[in-house]
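Bump. Still looking for Phenylalanine--tRNA ligase, mitochondrial structure tokens.
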Amino acid sequence: MAAARMLLAILAGLLPRAGSRSHVFALLRRGGQLSSYGSTGAGPATAENTSSKVTSNITINGKAFPRDSWFNVPDKVLAHTSRKLHLQKDHPISITRQILESKFPGPTYHYHNDFDPVVSTYENFDSLGFPPDHPGRARSDTYYINKDTLLRTHTSAHEAQLFGARASPGYLVSADVYRRDEVDRSHYPVFHQMEGARVWDRATVPNGDIAAAVYADLAKLPTHDIEVEDPHPPFHAERNPLQTDHHSAAEAEAIAAHLKRSLELMVVEVFSRAQAAARLQDPDFVDEPLRVRWVEAYFPFTSPSWELEVYYAGDWLEVLGCGVSKQELHINAGAPSQLGWAFGIGLDRIAMLLFQIPDIRLFWSSDARFLDQFAGVSGDLSKLKLFVPFSRHPSCYKDVSFWLPSTSSAAGGNDMAVRGQNFHENDVMEIIREVAGDTVEDVTLADQYSHPTTGRKSMCYRISYRSLERTLTNKETNDMHLRVKALLAARLGVMIR
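Sorry for the wait, here they are.
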């Protein structure tokens, strides 16, 4: 099968079940893992009325933080804060980062790859304009250290800092990010994002002419020969508006052209690498021509905005999202004369596509049969090759059914109220992850039932247990499932059926 076709076949299977946008661009959609501007899931924030009395300190990457009653980070997640897969030599996440960075060279672009994952709620939410009741603030979605501190949910947490620093005309931020989420082969509580931005400054460009400066920089970019469909105008008053209070039409049109060429070149690089890897495996390999198109979109922190889609099997599939940065972000960062573009993309999803890795859990494996396949690629990207499965261990699924407490409710299996507090289905997922770790492959809501007389709600979840490295014994699986049931009852107050 042709490389692009294989990559997009994987993408088709990895698109999320619902939602639109990963938290500055959750663009390959949630769980995976693009970047931040967008919806983070259903359900109201739950922590506003929680006591914030400090109970102890916790050390993360050598720094001590006060821990209070908002704290909700499992030990398994804390252990990942020091892994930094995006910086691990010859790791698929790091290799993917290198490939994307290669299309945004210095000195125009600076790379920021070692920001600490612990940030303030101001950096993660307030500096970006998230309202106080935004669902992304909920403890059902976000890992909190304390009321004012959390594990970043997106790379955009560093945006105001970088815009304000004015250290370079462009930047890329790659980092590990953290979200409580569903359990399946494309979702993991820790993943990796890349966010990029390019700015021009009215105070420094010749004659203050932003449009002329942008077009001059556009002329320096390489060209490509892929087919690009871009049927819409650079902006539209209703569908994709110009920021008329801050940008002229000429400025917005120039910035959009520079943005689109830059990202097209990045996508061409990814697919060219995939094609080269396929040719290493099959010298007779012949790929189909790559087709891409731009689609108007909406993101809270850019306008106008677009998604980039790639054509596969008679349909268009999203790859990333981007737009002209909202001027308020530059103003709030103390750089009001700047304007430019931004994009976001999920490194895990792109790596899964690029290497044809079928399960996101593999990225966290220390098994030499996985890691050794990519030895030497960081030093020579021409050696990139597709992942070869080293084993296939059987899965074992088990169901767990429970009654919600009589005062509880459930909305679509997603939002439940237990003991007077709201929580998300992610609370169920988190308990299962806590017990089973990376041996849980998938958790789905198999059934829900309301008693016709009492109205009491029953939920049934199907849990698929499977290790990627060895065969689980029946005793191991049964023991884990019993612990899951016990912890669900103890933590959530449900009655196991």
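Residues 198 and 268 are 20 Å apart (CA to CA).

Edit: fixed formatting.
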